[in-house]
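[09:14] KT: can someone run the structure on this one? pasting the chain below
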Amino acid sequence: MSDKIDKRARSERFRQRLDQAMGTSGINQSALARMTGVDRSTISQLLKDKGARLPNAQVVGECASALGVSADWLLSLTDNPERAEDIVANALTLTEAPRALVDEQIFAWHQEAAGYKIRHVPAGLPDMLKTRELLSWEYSPHLGRTTEQAIGASEDRLNWMRDSSSDYEIALPMHEMASFARGEGYYSGLPDDTRLAQIAHMRQLSEQLYPRLRLYLFDARQLYSAPVTVFGPLLAVLYLGRNYLAFRDTTRVQGFTEHFDALVREATVTARSLPDYLDSLT
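[09:31] RB: done, structure tokens below
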């Protein structure tokens, strides 16, 4: 808070916020006294004293800890009641990333960010642009006999993402697309007809969904990016393989946004020129 307040007003706000926090947490005076190691009469005095005096720092800290709020909030030094450790915990989370098509967590983030621009650097070709044949080839080693069931169950989610109110910008390294077209590296063993059908499918979608979906290819020798998705101003998620690392604090989300926008600005193949580039691969 930037506004200065006098001691009497600060003391009054302390009483109000202490009472508010006790009501929210369901902790009464007796319980708070036990949790803070002071007499019940001390808590009663804190709530009723109309003077300008504030309790000492230890009592304020113990009350804040017991009630799950920050001492700064009790003292009207901030309007955010969250403790610093809770703010950090909420701003940065590590969640499991199962080897699956559009898992529950990813889909929930897409739904949360509906209407915002979603910026995406995939680990490979983006799932939302893959043919059923490519999905089957890619996920069969992990899902076995349940592959077709998994693809079927995910189609609604993939279609929702394609048809959502969000704008999608996807930035993909050029070498990923080139390796796919040649059937090299990760895509070694992929049948030629599956590769050609996938390229044609991407070309069709890139024109059909443009400008709501824009796909760019960047030169990873000039600019590198780990797999990351930025869900509007809400959060940015790094893909680590077995886990997602999600950031919700404004500064880091803005940093990831600027990183992605640099990939788009420096793209070798723009969204407008992508169809011609895909034609050159076949």
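[09:33] KT: thanks! The domain at 92-280 is CATH 3.30.870.10 (Endonuclease; Chain A).
[09:34] RB: yep, looked fine to me
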